[in-house]
Design brief:
The complex is a heterotrimer of chains A (263), B (161) and C (103). With 263 residues, chain A is mainly alpha-helical. Chain A contains 9 helices and 7 strands. Chain A is globular, with a radius of gyration of 18 Å. Chain C is mainly beta and 103 residues long. In chain C, the strands form 2 sheets. Chain C has a 4-stranded antiparallel β-sheet with strand order 4-3-6-7, with no helix packed on it. In chain C, strands 1-2-5 form a 3-stranded antiparallel β-sheet, with no helix packed on it. Classes of the chains: A mainly alpha (263), B alpha+beta (161), C mainly beta (103).
C-alpha cells in the first residue's frame, strides 16, 4: 500500500477518528473530550472541577489581557495583526497560508506580528507567549474548532505530514503519539492518566501542576518528545506545525476550552 | 487603616525574641484585646514540628478524638501532589479553629485557620503532599478537638523532587 | 502594579462566600534549582480577612500550602457592596493587601 495510491481524505479521517473515540467511550459527551483525562476519570475530574472554581491560570490570563492591550514601541498593537482585532479568533488556528505555502500557528503568528512591528520575538514555550495565547483562547471559549484545509495539494500534504508524524514511532521508548493518545487514553502511563487525542489541543495553553506554571502547544510537543526519549524538535518546526494542523482539524466542531489546567 | 496583620507581626517578633510567656503577660502590654491577639498569633512552633501528634500538641495543647461529624473531602489519588484540593466541613457547634495536617510531609502541619464567631466551620484549600499520606483535619469546637483522617495516594510528589 | 490577591466574595443575603487566590511562589525550602542549590523557603505565613472592622477569617500557612494559594470560606452577614479587606504577610516580611467589594 503506497502513499501515492491513497487519496488524502481529511473529511473521512475526521469522521473515523471521532467515531473511534465515541465508540471507545460511549458515556463521554462529544464536547467533553476537550477536557482530556478529566473526561475519563471521576476522581481526577472532581479535583479539576474544584480547581476550576478559581483556576491556577487566572494570573497568566490577566497578564495576557494586559500584554495584548499594550501597544508596541511603534504605537501599533497585536490587534492590528489579526482579524477582528485578535478577539475570538483562536479557533481558526492553525491555518494554511497559501502565499507562504505552509501552516501558520497562532504562536507563530504572534511572533511574526511582534517582529513586523520592531519587537523581539517571545520564547515559544512559556511565560509571555503562554499568557498571550491564554488570553486569546479565553476570548474564543466555547467556540467550535474551525480549521480549514483549502483545496490546495500543499495544504493536503501538510495535513498528511502531520498525520504521518502522529502515527510514527520514535525515541528510545519507541512510542508514537497514537500509542498513548489513540490506543490508551484513560489508562495510566506511570503516574499520569493519558488524554484522548480527540480535542487534545482545545484546552491549550495549559497550566500544568507538573510545571507549576503555564505551557504552550510548543512546550507540550517538545516535552512529549523528551518524555518518550525522542529528540525534541525546535519550537514551530515544520513537523510540529503540521502536527498541530492535523490534530486541530480532527477536533473541528469541538469547543475551545482554553486556557486549561492539567496535572 | 490597620489590619490585624500588624498585631501578628508584633507578637511574632516577641515570640522570636524568646518571650515565652507572651501569651499570658506580654500581650497585655499591647494596645489590643489580649484574646484576639492570642488567637491571631502565628503558630511558628507548630509548623516546625515533624509529626502530626507533636504539631497538634503544639497548636492546641490537647489531643483529638475521631468524629464522624467532621467531613473531610480529599481525593483518592491526587492528580499531582503539588496541588491537592482538600476541604473540611462540620456540623459541630462552637468551632474556633480548623487545621490540616499531612502526616508524611517533612513537617506535618500544613495550614491552620482561625474561625471567629459568625464564620462558618467550613474551609477549602489546596495543599502540597510529598507522598502518599494520611491527611488529617482537626476541628476545635467548644474547647475540645475532633478529627477526621483520610489516606490520599500520591504518585507524582508535590515537593518538586 | 496589580495586587497579588484575587477575590470573589458573593453574598447570598444570609452568608457571604469568599474565595481568594493569591499569587505567591510558596517555596517550601525543600526544592533545588537547576544548579543544585536549595531555593530558600518563601511563603505566606498569615492571610487575614476583615469585614466591618471585624476579622472574619485568619489563615496561618506553612510551606505545604500549594503555590498560588487558594482558600474558600463563608461568614454570616455581609451585604452586596460591602468592603472586604484582605492582607497577607510572608516569612520574608513582605506583604500585600487589597479591598474587594462583596457582590
Amino acid at each position: 500500500m503506497t502513499r501515492a495510491a491513497e487519496a488524502i481524505d481529511p473529511v473521512g479521517d475526521a469522521k473515523a477518528f471521532r467515531d473511534y473515540f465515541i465508540k471507545k467511550f460511549p458515556k463521554v459527551k462529544l464536547e467533553d473530550f476537550v477536557n482530556g483525562p478529566y473526561s475519563l476519570n471521576e476522581d481526577m475530574r472532581k479535583q479539576w472541577e474544584e480547581k476550576e472554581e478559581f483556576p491556577p491560570y487566572e494570573f497568566a490570563l490577566d497578564a495576557g489581557k494586559e500584554m495584548f492591550a499594550k501597544p508596541f514601541k511603534n504605537g501599533k498593537g497585536y490587534a492590528d495583526c489579526f482579524p477582528n482585532g485578535g478577539i475570538g479568533i483562536r479557533q481558526n488556528y492553525p491555518y494554511f497560508d497559501e502565499k507562504e505555502g505552509k501552516v501558520v500557528t497562532l504562536e507563530l503568528a504572534l511572533n511574526r506580528c511582534r517582529e513586523a512591528n520592531g519587537e523581539a520575538p517571545l520564547s515559544y514555550v512559556k511565560d509571555d507567549m503562554a499568557s498571550l495565547t491564554a488570553y486569546m483562547a479565553f476570548t474564543s471559549r466555547g467556540k467550535p474548532m474551525n480549521i480549514k484545509i483549502p483545496n490546495d495539494p500543499r495544504a493536503l500534504d501538510a495535513y498528511e505530514n502531520g498525520k504521518r508524524y502522529f502515527y510514527t514511532r520514535r525515541g528510545q521508548l519507541n512510542f508514537s503519539c497514537a500509542n498513548c493518545h489513540v490506543q490508551n487514553p484513560g489508562e495510566r502511563l506511570r503516574a499520569e492518566i493519558l488524554a484522548p487525542a480527540l480535542g487534545i489541543l482545545n484546552a491549550m495553553p495549559i497550566y500544568r501542576s507538573e510545571w507549576s506554571g503555564m505551557g504552550t502547544i510548543s512546550r507540550r510537543f517538545m516535552t512529549c518528545n523528551s518524555q518518550t526519549r525522542a529528540e525534541p524538535l525546535e519550537p514551530q518546526a515544520d513537523e510540529y506545525r503540521d502536527l498541530e494542523y492535523y490534530l486541530s482539524y480532527l477536533s473541528n466542531g469541538l469547543p475551545i476550552s482554553g486556557p486549561g489546567a492539567r496535572p | 487603616m490597620t489590619l490585624s496583620l500588624d498585631r501578628s507581626i508584633v507578637t511574632r517578633r516577641l515570640i522570636l525574641r524568646g518571650a515565652a510567656a507572651v501569651a499570658l503577660i506580654g500581650l497585655g502590654d499591647l494596645p489590643l484585646p489580649a484574646l484576639a491577639a492570642a488567637n491571631d498569633r502565628y503558630p511558628e512552633d507548630a509548623f516546625k514540628q515533624k509529626s502530626d501528634a507533636d504539631a497538634i500538641k503544639s497548636l492546641y495543647g490537647k489531643s483529638a478524638e475521631a468524629s464522624d461529624k467532621v467531613k473531610l473531602d480529599a481525593p483518592e489519588i491526587a492528580e499531582n501532589g503539588a496541588v491537592v484540593p482538600i476541604a473540611v466541613t462540620t456540623t459541630l457547634e462552637g468551632v474556633t479553629s480548623i487545621s490540616f495536617l499531612v502526616s508524611e510531609n517533612p513537617n506535618a502541619l500544613a495550614a491552620s485557620y482561625v474561625i471567629p464567631e459568625g464564620t462558618l466551620p467550613s474551609v477549602a484549600n489546596r495543599l502540597k503532599m510529598q507522598k502518599t499520606s494520611n491527611v488529617i483535619a482537626i476541628v476545635e469546637a467548644g474547647g475540645k478537638l475532633y478529627s477526621a483522617t483520610k489516606e490520599v495516594k500520591v504518585t507524582v510528589g508535590g515537593c518538586g523532587g | 502594579m496589580a495586587s497579588t490577591i484575587r477575590v470573589r466574595a458573593t453574598s447570598s443575603g444570609e452568608n457571604t462566600e469568599v474565595q481568594a487566590l493569591v499569587q505567591h511562589p510558596m517555596d517550601s525550602g525543600y526544592v533545588k534549582d537547576a544548579q543544585g542549590a536549595i531555593i530558600p523557603a518563601h511563603f505566606i505565613q498569615q492571610l487575614t480577612f476583615e469585614h466591618g472592622g471585624k476579622r472574619v477569617f485568619v489563615a496561618d500557612w506553612g510551606p505545604a500550602v500549594a503555590k498560588d494559594p487558594y482558600v474558600k470560606f463563608s461568614f454570616k452577614g455581609g451585604q452586596k457592596g460591602d468592603d472586604l479587606k484582605i492582607g497577607w504577610v510572608d516569612n520574608k516580611g513582605a506583604s500585600d493587601s487589597t479591598t474587594a467589594k462583596i457582590g
